[in-house]
Design goal:
There is one protein chain. The strands form six sheets. Strands 1-22-19-24-17-14-13 form a seven-stranded antiparallel beta sheet, with no helix packed on it. Strands 2-3-4-11-6-9-12 form a seven-stranded antiparallel beta sheet. It has a four-stranded antiparallel beta sheet with strand order 5-10-7-8, with no helix packed on it. It is mainly β. The N and C termini lie far apart (46 Å). The protein is built from two helices and 26 strands. It binds fe (ii) ion. The site of fe (ii) ion has 7 residues, from strand 5 and strand 10.
Length: 281
Amino acid sequence: MNRKIESVFKSKPTIEGAGVNLKRVFGYNEVPLLDPFLLLDDFRSRDPKDYIAGFPWHPHRGIETVTYMLEGTVEHGDSMGNKGIIGPGDVQWMTAGSGIIHQEMPKGINGHMGGFQLWVNLPSTHKMMGPRYREIKKEQIPEISPGKGINIRVISGEAGGIKGPVKDLVVDSEYLDVSMEPNMEFIHKIQKGYRVFAYVIEGNGFFEPENSNSIDREHLVIFKDGDNVQISSGDQNLRFLLISGKPIGEPVAWYGPIVMNTREELEIAFEEYRNGTFIKK
Ligand code: FE2
């Protein structure tokens, strides 16, 4: 059975970090709608004033942050001693677990900057796991063409029989970047019971077979349960993220960059951050 559309949202302008103007696709107000996902930010911009202030040193606990760059770079450093530059087409899949403190500073290339940050929740059994950091370069991400006029970058999960480089995830998640030429159809199987959403990066398309309303750029499509998603492009190119994951189904206690199960765990986290015992490893 094809999955039907449950709801469609437009991303909203938000200010984050030290004054970064970005678009929030979903976040705190949508919990638990996207379980196991907590937040998606779209930070594409052509104006350095929007992003140059960046995200100076801040903590995370209880989640994973996944940064996928399209344009420009992000210079980062963290309390585990990792340091580097996430460039166009690269992915950083960072598991905060028991805690990291990091900074993320965007730098445009010819003023252009763009990418997405997704937050994946961790279950109570793994919220205090050792932090883990993975950097995946553009060349390591397979780009496949399951049919004429369709291209997919497979970051995690599987498409067209090819698995993405990010494996052994705590929460089983699939992360695809799908590009379609006009008048193409894409059918993709999603595990039953998993949450799936699409976020339109460019162009517009049709996200449900018997629905003639097109959905365009900067819109989020949340699907109902079922098997396949069936997506068609209209008279222009369509590019979207297609992300799915196994719901966790636990209480969410969230303040700023820290997401736990209970308010008490949040208070402990902030107290530890204040008194210098936040970092466990
Ligand atoms: Fe961060």
